[in-house]
Amino acid sequence: MTEILSGTGITKSYGATPALRGVDVSVAEGEIVAITGPSGCGKSTLLHCLAGILRADSGTVVYRDQDLNLWSEAARSRLRRTEFGVLFQFGQLVPELTAAENVALPLLLAGSGRRDARAAALGWLDRFGVADLADQRPGAMSGGQQQRCAAARALVTEPRVIFADEPTGALDQLNGEQVLSAMVQVVREQGSSVVLVTHEAPIAAYADREIVLRDGVVDPTGIGVGA
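Above: the chain sequence. Below: its structure as tokens.
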């Protein structure tokens, strides 16, 4: 498979505390990679470095032959609105906007017209089984419904890579697996890659490959959350 994203020798510290201590990782086109490991091992920090949310202290993060560490914050932000999609644990929907408005937001920021953006948003809400909530605000939804809407928003631009940071961590097991199952089905259809951070074995099982972090480095034994 063709590599689309890689990190080499990634280090990141918060003050005097190292979070990543020389991590190597690669993601192929269409591949779902789970990053697992105990709490505090650097999983989310690695995802944020790969997504360009954080700039690594050293090492390289290469996306389609371009080192993102050399890009400006504005350029990396544009990338997250177009070719990257990001899904967080609590969805982070805008509470004042309806579901359709939340999902349409990335398209509007990229310059799409309101009518086209709403039509696309409705289509994605339907793919995640929440089209009937299009005109509801997040406060009127369950946690699982909110996360489905957040997944639709992360995918509405049809990104090449989706970054999912504990996307089911705020949900019960049934809702969590339903949300992830729906997301995996969609990304398989469109051939996107996924970087998935999780501490839950049933969620990691959806991935093609698992990378285990411990104390800021890749565990060479590869014994993950399902062990």
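The beta strands are 3-14, 17-28, 32-36, 58-63, 66-67, 84-87, 161-165, 193-197, 209-214, 217-218.
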